[in-house]
Write a structure and sequence with these properties.
This protein is of the alpha/beta class and 275 residues long. It has 9 helices and 14 strands. The chain has a single domain, classed as TIM Barrel (Alpha-Beta Barrel), CATH 3.20.20.70. It is 36% helix and 20% strand. α5 links the parallel β9 and β10. α1 packs across α2 and α1 packs parallel to α8.
Length: 275
């Protein structure tokens, strides 16, 4: 079985310090949380960025500063910027971090009702544009899917040349408006991707660790972090993103699964070796 790739989604665009004081806003906080996650065993830092007051942004220069600050201390880690941004952002705004030519970036494969009047828009044409941009810039997309229909969209656009094989999926499960985080639904998504594809599971809230366990057993990969869940156990706030990663590492060790280093993760995902 392949070694386990752990992704740490350290801030997201929606969680706040009121939910957990360790959520990073400032540059030094991003470096701290990325470092704690990496040192605990994460190979990939899934990155949203904020202004110092916590406002989410896709500003290219803010991404540049945060990414360079993390890389200065942790040059081995893979940084995966989000192109999801926040609800209401335009396609051009969301695509800004791809201009920095990261190794990976996320590509959301469908539209989702987040709740109330909030709609996370990803039209077919948006997905095509994002896919073409990533192919042009040599960026490996992590295909964010919130439901089975989004896998079908990715497969169709793969056949049309907008997404390259082998594909890497992220099953984001338990989000309002998307598929639930039940084991039944994990099995459904897992059985819907090509045999040469890899996948990560991101369980939201109470689904984070049960789905991590399922992925570890199945041979898939795991995403944890404060974007998805701010608790280490029921009612107990996590002290850091590193603490969330440490819990997954303990689970993997109990099940005999080794943890991938960033360079081993690059090999598994088909990324170019680090220079």
């Amino acid at each position: 079985m392949e070694k386990l790739i752990i992704t740490a989604a350290i801030s997201g665009a929606e969680v706040t310090k009121e939910m957990n004081p360790a959520v990073p806003y400032r540059i030094e906080e991003y470096v701290r949380e990325a470092g704690l996650a990496y040192e605990a065993g994460a190979s990939i830092i899934h990155l949203h960025v904020r202004w110092d007051d916590g406002t989410p942004t896709q500003d290219k220069e803010r991404f540049r500063v945060v990414m360079e600050a993390i890389k200065a201390k942790y040059p081995e880690v893979i940084i995966q910027p989000s192109t999801g941004g926040a609800v209401g952002m335009s396609d051009d705004e969301r695509l800004q971090p791809t201009e920095l030519l990261p190794e990976m970036a996320t590509l959301d494969c469908g539209t989702l009702n987040f709740g109330g009047d909030e709609v996370f828009m990803n039209t077919e044409n948006t997905i095509k544009v994002f896919g073409e941009r990533m192919i042009k810039n040599g960026i490996k997309p992590e295909l964010e899917v919130f439901d089975k229909s989004m896998i079908d969209m990715a497969l169709r656009l793969n056949k049309k040349g907008y997404i390259k094989s082998p594909m890497h999926f992220d099953f984001v499960m338990g989000v309002n408006g998307g598929i639930s985080g039940e084991l039944r639904d994990f099995v459904f998504l897992r059985g819907s991707i090509p045999s040469d594809a890899t996948y990560t599971v991101a369980g939201v809230g109470r689904y984070e660790f049960p789905l991590a366990m399922a992925a570890i057993i199945d041979g898939g990969h795991v995403r944890v972090g404060m974007e998805d869940n701010v608790y280490i156990s029921k009612g107990v706030l996590a002290k850091s993103n590193g603490e969330l990663v440490e819990k997954v590492v303990r689970m993997a060790k109990e099940l005999g699964r080794e943890i991938a280093t960033p360079d081993e993760a690059r090999k598994i995902l088909g990324l170019a070796p680090r220079k």
